[in-house]
Fold:
Amino acid sequence: MSAPDRPQLTIQGLDVEREGRCLMGGLNLTLARGQFLVIAGPSGAGKTSLLSCLAGILPVTRGRISFASGGGPEVNRHRLGLIFQHLLLTPNATAETNALCGLLGQRPWWSTLLGFRATDKSRARDLLERLEISASVHSPIRRLSGGERQRVAIARALMASPDVLLADEPVSHLDPRLARHVLGLLREDARATGRAVLCVLHDEGLTENFADAVLTLRQDAPHAWSLQTR
Structure:
């Protein structure tokens, strides 16, 4: 199979043990290029743990994770975009600077010693404008609302031009209109670039509108997961 035809992500027999519990239940999943997968399920079922495994943050107990470029999370971190609930933004830096930090893992450390290129700044401002926070480009993160910070974290992840985007409740602080707008952008960009998206959502209406497939994780059930393709 040639590289363009390979799935962006393949998971085989994945199990993860946390606090004496086994999560995932031998998860098998193939994610195609441009596919938008929603991860659903109750609290404690392992949604965040799954994203952490894919990002190489949480060790896998059993099974295998592989990406289209070859290898697992440990050699593909620079190809991943991460949007986790804690955001990890720099409070005193501006929205623009935080977004630009998405480039830091993509280039040699010395390439940004004198600052970011004008083209990079233009791209960051364009992303922030598309996410409807252009008025806050030069505002420090500590002055922004929770929803604005969330959108800055999304811009930072997209600046990396990732092959796979891992998003843990990326619109939880947004009103319904903005949530639909942001998810629409993520799905549109996924289809345009071939980027695969794994997105944890709790809102069934948003899931219905945006998911190409839904992976449901369960806790203390005979079958720990199910996959529905739309």
